[in-house]
Design goal:
alpha+beta, 4-stranded antiparallel beta sheet, 3 helices, 8 strands, 16% helix, elongated
């Protein structure tokens, strides 16, 4: 009897585990941006899967290095980690050009840097992930753009 209960419990775990949720992104925003950068803001990107679940696609993360006066932005993948999908990130100041990164990436987009000491910035990015559900192809998508902010 105990073997049957154990087997049923193990089968229940196998059925409820989500392969997409099981893989965690091995990278961090501060690791991607480099030494001296600290997270100062983030924005989560979501969409609804065809089966009705709300999916956390990626995190847009903004960091700042007080020693260099530079901001660094990255889009960190949270769903389909390790599979190539289209993601992008951009950051700019009012007085200077912008840094951009958009690629078919498995873990993150970026890093994108801009010198922003005593300047306001705007940062924006997104994620476009392809999924197959019941033999049909769908695109999960979300993008976001900040207002002028983080004026230092």
């Amino acid at each position: 009897m105990a073997k049957r209960i154990l087997l049923a419990a193990l089968l229940g775990l196998a059925v409820t585990a989500s392969p997409a949720a099981a893989i965690k992104n091995p990278y961090t925003a501060t690791g991607v941006c480099g030494a001296g950068y600290s997270v100062i803001d983030r924005h989560k990107l979501y969409d609804t899967h065809p089966d009705g679940r709300r999916i956390h696609l990626a995190d847009m993360v903004l960091t700042y290095n007080t020693a260099t006066g530079k901001n660094c932005a990255v889009t960190m993948k949270r769903f389909r980690v390790g599979k190539p999908d289209y993601m992008w990130i951009s950051i700019q100041t009012r007085r200077a050009g912008d840094g951009n990164s958009a690629q078919n990436l498995q873990y993150f987009a970026g890093p994108s840097y801009v010198f922003a000491r005593h300047r306001c910035i705007v940062w924006h990015g997104g994620a476009e992930l392809d999924v197959t559900y019941h033999h049909a192809h769908y695109t999960l998508y979300d993008a976001w753009r900040s207002k002028w902010s983080h004026c230092s």
